[in-house]
Write a structure and sequence with these properties.
By secondary structure, the chain is α+β, with helices and mostly antiparallel strands. The protein has two domains: 160 residues, no CATH class; 102 residues, OB fold (Dihydrolipoamide Acetyltransferase, E2P). The chain is built from six helices and ten strands, in the order H-H-H-H-H-E-E-E-E-E-H-E-E-E-E-E.
């Protein structure tokens, strides 16, 4: 068995766990920014309403209400990575993860209401000048807060999921570069499956929207990546691939003929008889002995 984040043999840090930790730190920083913006807008809106209605509500009253709620939400955000570790957001795990998230949401609301209530009871007398008279622990108030906290829980959880996904993509990209550099292999994701292709086997690649059609001698792969990303991986592999067109890339070793088209471009014939276009922009990359 492996402890989360550390292997028992050699005590080697788990890169997946380290990536999640980095993502969680960045997610909390982003949440802090969102909460700062939200509390500022809420206070400004309430002060505008007070001015328009003529109600005698002091600035400390407004600040205490909003900051007690938002500060509690930020403090409780530390719980979300713990829930996410036990119940990942996945279509394959929803049957057992959904009850965990339902319980976590109920706990989040109860903690939010109780801590917020305690802060207001403590701060209202010295800051506002009178006691806080609303009983947030009454069932009707808890139900009201649950309705609002449902969206808050979803937004916070999505934030952590999104930042973890971005960090995992960075981890995968770094691993792909390392594999290209040391093993001269390219990882292509096609149809939900990852294929490992030797870089020299790649003959051509053509951009196809959000995909790249990568062709070898035996088969082709419609990989979900950009042409620029593939070009960088092939450059790391040290292989003889060159960009010949905005939408085309070719293996230099398979080029047998380069024929000008008269408009500054060229037609490039490969060893298997196929022809791909070359543009004026990339013409200086083409070999001169064809």
């Amino acid at each position: 068995m492996l402890n989360r984040g550390v292997e028992q043999q050699g005590r080697v840090p788990n890169p997946e766990y380290a990536a999640d930790q980095r993502a969680d730190q960045r997610a909390r920083a982003f949440i802090a920014l969102m909460i700062t913006v939200s509390v500022t807008m809420q206070i400004a809106t309430q002060r505008t309403d007070v001015a328009q209605t003529g109600l005698q509500i002091s600035w400390p009253h407004t600040w205490t209400l909003e900051i007690s709620s938002h500060a509690t939400i930020f403090a409780l955000s530390v719980l979300f990575p713990l829930v996410l570790n036990r119940a990942p957001i996945s279509i394959f795990a929803w049957r057992w993860s959904a009850p965990i998230h339902a319980g976590a949401f109920a706990l989040f609301t109860l903690l939010h209401v109780n801590i917020m209530y305690a802060i207001r009871l403590m701060l209202f007398p010295p800051l506002v000048g009178h006691s806080y008279n609303v009983n947030l622990l009454a069932p009707q108030h808890i139900i009201y807060e649950m309705q609002k906290d449902g969206l808050t829980y979803a937004v916070l959880m999505f934030t952590f999921v999104a930042f973890r996904a971005m960090e995992q993509r960075r981890l995968e990209a770094a691993a792909a570069v390392g594999q290209a550099r040391t093993a001269h292999r390219i990882t292509l994701k096609s149809g939900g499956v990852s294929f490992i292709v030797s870089a020299p086997e790649i003959i051509t690649a053509q951009a196809a929207g959000n995909y790249v059609d990568v062709r070898t001698q035996d088969k082709s792969f419609l990989a979900r990546m950009t042409m620029t990303a593939l070009e960088k991986l092939l450059a790391q592999s040290g292989d003889e691939h060159i960009r010949v067109h905005r939408s085309h890339l070719a293996n230099r070793n398979h080029i047998v003929e380069i024929k000008p088209t008269g408009d500054g471009g060229v037609d490039i014939t490969l060893a298997d008889g196929s022809v791909i276009p070359g543009s004026r922009r990339y013409r200086d990359r083409l070999p001169e002995n064809h």
